[in-house]
Amino acid sequence: MDSFYLAVMVATALVLLAAFSSLLAFRFGAPLLLLFLGIGLLAGVDGLGIDFSNNGLAYVLGSTALAVILFDSGYGTTLQSFRTAALPSLTLASLGVVLTACLVGLLAMLVLDFTFIEGALLGSIVASTDAAAVFFLLRIGGINIRDKVRSTLEVESGTNDPMAIFLTMALVQLVAAGEGYAGFDFELLILFFEQMGLGFVCGLIGGVIIHFVLKRLNIERGLAPILMLAMALMVFGVTGVLGGSGFLAVYVAGIYAGNRKIPARTTITRFQEGITWLAQIIMFLVLGLLATPSEFLTILLPSVLLGLFLVFIARPLAVWLCLLPFDYTQREMGFIGWVGLRGAVSILLGIVPIIGGLENGQLYFNTVFIIVMMSLVLQGWSIKTVATRLKLIIPPRIGAIDKVELDLPGNANHELLAYRVAAGSPVALGERIPRWAHPSLVIRDGKSMRYQYAGRLQENDHVYLFIAPGYSGLIDRLFASKAPVSESDEAFFGTFQIAPNRPVEEVLQAYGPMSASEAEAEMTVADLIEHRIGGKAHYGDRVRLHNIVLIVVDTDENGRISKVGVSMEPVAPATSLPIFLDLPEIRSRIRTYFAKRKRLRAIRQTSGKPDQKEA
Amino acid sequence: MALADLIAQNAVLPALKANSKKQLLQEMSAKAASLTGLPEREIFDVILQRERLGSTGVGNGIAIPHGKMGNLDRIVGVFARLDQPVNFEALDDEPVDLVVLLLAPEGAGADHLKALSRIARVMRDSDLVEKMRATDDAASLYAFLSDSQASNAA
């Protein structure tokens, strides 16, 4: 029994240490997940000496944690961002994963003396971007990146895990069976569609059931999140038993459940947030504990080479090829290419060759571990800098606000908001709060009073109001301090502004020739943007019109677009190096090249002899 | 590409006098007409048409009116500096005193946009803009436009 208490003590101590390390991470901007991994390594066999080498247990723990994380990623993905990014993201998650795996595989043949199949196995282990790492950096990292780019990265990282997991499992079996290329048969393809198809269908059904149960059964508020989590894991388990991809299923179920109206939403969201943190800490700690860094030295050089290749060549190349058919600018492709963070999923998959009984199983694990560490350091640390450099960050429209939202019991059509009045905010300057917001209570210097008797609001007053859900954005503005305007705003909002109520035809005349259907040419600029987005436009939304980008700079109180910016970003690339070119640019470069040759030839013919002078 | 590639030496109006946005655009259209041989009225109409879509005053006292012309064979720019700023309905409601007018051939497409974006970027350089405001000498203004490349290498 003593050993049991000891184990509990050590385990909780590690989790606590990881939780405390977050303070450090926020102060220094270090990738938090790297710290978790580091703590695991430090406590492990080569550090404090905790000898944990139970691969099976680590795999089970890691997979369960991953299921929890994937469910939460789905839960937090709005349907709108899924729609924006579904096609490009799924291309990245399927074709992109295969491309990355093959490219890494080719290099592995060279530096590790692998066969191609073995190389591809290594490649598929590191091919998926880590949902946990990407979500963490994009959401909690405190930067607000362009919608399209963020959605693409998020949906990609959620959907490419199942793909990489499938590939890894399949290739481990192939290598173990020693069949070589003969193993790439029709059956494998069928298995793929079976797994993904089942995963998708089961996930959808699971999502419907989760929603139904939570909505219909009047469950104790505190129990609701537990119920949801248990059902999510149930979906994971059942799908796996049926032979589908459980990881895809939880993600899909999460998307479905997260986009439906569910009672006790705030309680659930908070719980999800906490449990996802815990899942991440456990996953990285356990994987860190499992590793034996003293073995790393022998394969350090090839692993570092592979890591550099993955970060600088394989991932960017795969991203570029996958996104070519879609409307991404050079900067956007560059950023997506850079944010290919690898994380716990890859390390987790690194265990599979060991469990699968491959003779050099440990080699895979160690190599993958080093590659992941490199990716976390290189990409994790630089993500904010790169986003700023590429001008992909949405400048804040309003300054900081300090507010608390509370769910009201019963089926109330109002939520309770509590704001602190910020200095310099419109309300502090005398702006009245609209009556529909039901301003009710003001707390000033610890004394509460009714809004009617409070007079002009003062700095640091707390104001309580009841509003219909969905209108808080308008009230936010009243309580926010002034937004700081920075240099990059101009780059973000475009060079010129145009009136949203003018016909698109005038835009075509001014900036054409460009492609737009006749129906689109007759719309107003605002209608076109809303039509392309497929719903209400939001601040910062972008619609590309051939060589220009229309940007929603502001919306009015009815949610209609009130200001539109025109950006020439597609023709003003961040670098003139021929990387991440989009299709129109490639066409234009080819045309210029041939025109130049033609001119040169014409000069040669007229002068009768070769002329070296540039035309 | 320095701005001097777009704006010829004789296309610089160092101390233009105008009382209104309309008069300013007329004066600059006249200059553009003399450079290109196109009718002044046509140029003015094209520029005005674009202004109807939204003012090209980009803020900080700078405006970049522009438009496309059917029978033009190259991109042509005119630079004007005003002693007295005029109201241009600009983004920030500040009156305008540095104006670059740009005309592009109908089929210029990407080149037209590149030129516009280039001008906007150069005119965002506050040091350069200060220097331009401080002189009414055509040759110095043209010199600033010529080495706008160097000061904006980043």
UniProtKB/TrEMBL annotation, chain A:
Molecular function via GO: antiporter activity
Domain of life where this protein originates: Bacteria
Residue stretches spanning the membrane: 6-25, 32-50, 56-75, 87-108, 120-142, 163-184, 196-214, 226-254, 274-292, 299-323, 335-356, 363-381
Cellular compartments annotated: Cell membrane
Topology in membrane: Multi-pass membrane protein
Main location: membrane
GO cellular component: a single term: plasma membrane
Keyword annotations from UniProtKB, A to Z: Antiport, Ion transport, Membrane, Transmembrane, Transmembrane helix, Transport
GO terms (BP aspect): proton transmembrane transport
Sequence ranges assigned to domain Transporter-associated in this UniProt record: 489-570
A Pfam family assignment: Na_H_Exchanger
Protein name per the record: Potassium/proton antiporter
From TrEMBL, chain B:
Keyword entries, A-Z: Transferase
Localization: Cytoplasm
Chain coiled-coil ranges: none
Gene symbol of the encoding locus: ptsN
PROSITE patterns recorded: PTS_EIIA_TYPE_2, PTS_EIIA_TYPE_2_HIS
Sequence intervals crossing the membrane: none
The protein's name in its UniProt record: PTS IIA-like nitrogen-regulatory protein PtsN
Single GO MF descriptor: protein-N(PI)-phosphohistidine-sugar phosphotransferase activity
GO terms of biological process kind: phosphoenolpyruvate-dependent sugar phosphotransferase system
Principal subcellular localisation of the protein: cytoplasm
Domain PTS EIIA type-2 intervals: 5-148
Annotated Pfam families: PTS_EIIA_2
InterPro entries assigned: PTrfase/Anion_transptr (IPR016152), PTS_EIIA_type-2_dom (IPR002178), PTS_Nitro_regul (IPR006320), PTS_SugarTrans_NitroReg (IPR051541)
UniProt GO cellular component terms: cytoplasm
